[in-house]
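Thread: "does anyone have the structure for this chain?"

Original post by V.I.:
We have the sequence but no experimental structure in hand. Need at least a predicted one for the grant figures.
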Amino acid sequence: MAKDLAARFPAARETLHAIDDVLGLSLSRLMFDGPEEELTATHNAQPAILAHSAAVFAVVAPHAGRHVVAAAGHSVGEYAAYVTAGALTPTDAAALVRRRGELMHQAGTERPGTMAAVLGLATADVEAACREASSNGSIAVAANLNAPDQTVVSGDPDAVARAGQACRARGAKRVIPLKVSGAFHSPLMAPAAHRLHGALEQAPFRDPAFPVIANATAEPVREAVQARRLLADQLTAPVRWVACMQQAARLAGGAGGVEGARFVELGPGKVLAGLVTRIVPNAQVVSLGTADEVTRFLEAA
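Reply from O.Q.:
Generated one for you, tokens below.
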């Protein structure tokens, strides 16, 4: 996707090359040609996702940027949200995200953890299963609250396995182990969060031009000092995605969404677009990841 985007849009290509320069590696070449096992490593995958989102925004911003009332991003995507709000440059965000990935991988090595997606069970039941499964210093928590019936559990492998069993007993349709290098968005990431806080304090943040809804609180952030703190907190806090999207709908004018308001997903894939339609009734959703999707968006703007 990114290769075609860079070939067809100079603004996307320039953004990707600028990120390559600041990172001191050809991330764009890795995005274009792989190998996949290297691209999916946490310290590469995170800046690659950020770079793709920033490249798309560089193309569409002149047509859509002035109409944005709020932004949000899922996990690493929160950094891309701050790019769209002008609080971070794409290069500064990429450097932070690269460091974030390194620290998360390090924390996962120091205390190995895992994650599992629970489908078809209410979040409250998943949280109860996690409390039941956590014992003797072994932790499982509800980490990604993605949809009313889709929650990701994170923590120590034994506790996550017990939580999965408890979720099945409560009626979960499926419990799917995830291929991750650590227990993200859980207390096991505390060492990474502490170290990341220092990097965030040194980063040249500006106050966002419009609110960015924080994963950790699902509340709008309007000041750089608050953004720094909540991005560090994000590593150990759950991603409150359902509440984030409900907050976005309120900022757009109503809890059920406003006629004419759109949720625009920037970056690879359409996962978030699918989640939004399950959270906000009658939401208008547009995914912009491929060059063709961006072209159609620009033609309709």
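V.I.: this helps a lot. The longest strand covers residues 140-147.
O.Q.: and DSSP finds 14 helices and nine strands in the chain.
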